[in-house]
Amino acid sequence: MSQQSKNVFLFQGISVRSGSPFFVFALLLFTSYSLYASFDFNNECRSAYRKIFNLQFSLAREIIEKEKIRDPGNAAIALLENDIDFLSAYISEEQFYYKRLLSNKDKRLSVIGSGNAQSPYCLYALADIHLQCAFVKLKFGDYVSGARDFLKANSLLKKNQKLFPKFILNLKGLGVLHAMAGVVPSEFKWLSAITGLVGTIEQGLGELDSLFLQTNSTELYFVKPEVALMLFYLKNNFENVRGEKMIPQLFTDSTLLQNPLIAFGYSGFLMKTGRAEEAIRILEEVDKPGDIPFLLLEYRLGFAKLCRGDKEAVSHLLKFAASFKGKNYLRSSFRYIAWHYLLSGDEKKYKQFIADVLFVGSAVIDEDKDATREANEKRIPDKSLLRARLFYDGGFFSNASAELKSGVSMKSKIDSVEYDYRLARIVHALADTTQAIILYVKTFSEGKFLRNHFASNSALMLGMIYERRNEKAKAREWYYKCINLPQHDYQASIGRKAKAGLVRVK
Description:
Elements: H1 3-6, E1 8-11, E2 14-17, H2 21-29, H3 43-52, H4 57-70, H5 76-92, H6 95-113, H7 120-139, H8 143-163, H9 170-182, H10 189-195, H11 201-212, H12 224-238, H13 241-250, H14 260-272, H15 276-285, H16 296-308, H17 313-323, H18 330-343, H19 347-356, H20 366-377, H21 383-394, H22 397-405, H23 413-429, H24 433-447, H25 454-468, H26 472-483, H27 491-504
Antiparallel strand pairs: 1-2
Helix pairs in contact: 3-4, 3-5, 4-5, 5-6, 5-7, 6-7, 7-8, 8-9, 8-10, 9-11, 11-12, 12-13, 12-14, 14-15, 14-16, 15-16, 16-17, 16-21, 17-18, 18-19, 18-20, 21-22, 21-23, 22-23, 23-24, 24-25, 25-26, 25-27, 26-27
């Protein structure tokens, strides 16, 4: 850049010489960034990016401040600072961070937009900010505004793909958007129509897989944790057999499991597949973020230890319940605390905490809906069924089977249906699919009008069993039955998996 061009800056499309009074005003208005932006995603920026997605915000800010001194016109700074605001809002669910993200959005878009249009990072960064804001807006219930951000991100990424078809990072945003388009729940079809999103889960996974295969290179290693997390979420929720087999391969790089975001997500997968011991190990060894406590790690660790029968489980759950300022998982955490006291023989404290479920957080996610249902029912769970459920969830199948054999009171139809469901899950886990099918069918038949998820998940499991056998007609039958059941808790997550199953066996 010539000396003359160094003294000329862009402000709202107006050329401003550095000696003019207007330049001084503009400089004061945008103190964080130089007004003529380049886009230099150099090694230092990559290092900061990696630390940000490891939730090491203080270390990242130190690098960012040095970069501001070295090159105040580097628009990459705007993207990095937005990454911090995005993750702060997303993991804390606090209004303060949400408002901070949105208040800085236009300023950062302006800085990046004034940068070098010849850089593929320019449109990529603009799209990334829109995507981040869209996901946070959805979490905070601002669906219409979030849809507009998805639309803008989609448009920017398509344009960038045409201009720079070899720019591999385009696949990050495009992969997510294409996968989303393929699995949009029925209640959000309007969002898909507004944004014009088109794609399939297979297309999105293919694009992200292509990017992930290249993240071992020096140039792209900085995005490896983020791409691994995206692939994990999609494979975990929308692929059946292949997803379960491929997920562990995402984390052969052991350093990834030190990332708290990945540790939280992967520990959930381990719990879902009955490996509480491994989940506990990962959660206890993960790097603990210092800037914004990632309290969901406490929630997940508390539940994993509850499944194992550890008395110390309640301390993790109480820490989460007392400190988390968001709305999700709070009702679930109070319910788990109540379960701890019930199984410890303190029915009074069980009643206290299960009653408090209705006065904390919200009932948006499935776990909180299920906790709300139990609190409203005012029905104390059978202890043997509860212990069997927890042992099963942790992968302690022999313990779970022993609990069922020890005797269940069968005080109600719900207890009877749950008994069959728990037994079905245990024999299924022990590879006795013949007996599992019989019990799942019985559970579905007797429980399809209950508000519990037993019948729905039984239909989903039957669909998956027949899909694995390549009996597509039977798999479709059970996936449809799963989707068409009356309203129940866990409907969103179970229904989403059934719809993904229908796509696979069509």
